[in-house]
């Protein structure tokens, strides 16, 4: 079985406009084989040549938005992010059809479990993980609705892909025409049988999480950027025991666990270093993690079996990791 850290050579088959500042990127396996299987909600790392503005390798996470049954290609939506770390700009400005890059095997921290009723809410490019979910819901004859919100019509992404879905289940909302989406009103009608799946900008997801407090409906979200975290002054030192490496290390308040592990020569895969991508997920053998990531669900946090070592710390004095 292919591990999540193995890389696969891929060739750019198509690169075309899919909305204002949005590219549709289609990769095919460079060796002519099929890509690894994936499920709606999954993402992969794109490993791009060179380094970003921060001097770090250009490894970026993008949701798979094509058809999980077609493993001859991986399809993505790439929004140019002027204030980003340089990955999307590199793809927009330098990547060309025929180029080869590498991709990781798929990971899924936003799995879709169809329930009685599903409301998808996609903010802009947040449509990418939601598209395969909507197709899955339709194929299984589920009761679903999709709201796609964007600043204006030009920013509504993947209109061609949306056109392939039943239009009576889709509502496109443009802020410049209809004002901001009235989430309290929209969600006030939902009951316990509905699960809301949402991906989009932080303020949209923050608002949904707030409205979900005490509400009967369920909420599943995926973030592009980190959720608000405890201030750095809340950090406290702790020790980490690395069982596989046979080391005990001290993590001072002003360093992350990932920094300490790297300094000690312990290899941990990482990418965003912001608690968003899930690349640095590490198994916890003992101790209670102080979870500060935006990846794990409330249930996964409660179980305490895994943690993101780039941002999360320890509740007590010692953590033991399977590393
Ligand atoms: S490196 Fe992305 S979650 Fe830790």
UniProtKB/TrEMBL annotation:
Respond yes or no to whether keyword Kinase is given for this record: no
**Highest taxon of the source?**
Bacteria
The enzyme's first-digit EC class, named in words, is oxidoreductase
Going by the UniProt record, its keywords in alphabetical order are: 2Fe-2S, Flavoprotein, Iron, Iron-sulfur, Metal-binding, Monooxygenase, Oxidoreductase
Q: What is its EC number?
A: 1.5.1.-
The 2Fe-2S ferredoxin-type domain, residue ranges: 236-323
CDD domains, per the entry = fer2, PDR_like
Residue ranges occupied by any FAD-binding FR-type domain in the UniProt entry: 5-113
Q: What name goes with this protein?
A: Toluene-4-sulfonate monooxygenase system reductase subunit TsaB1
Organism of origin is Pseudogemmobacter humi
Q: Which gene encodes it?
A: tsaB1
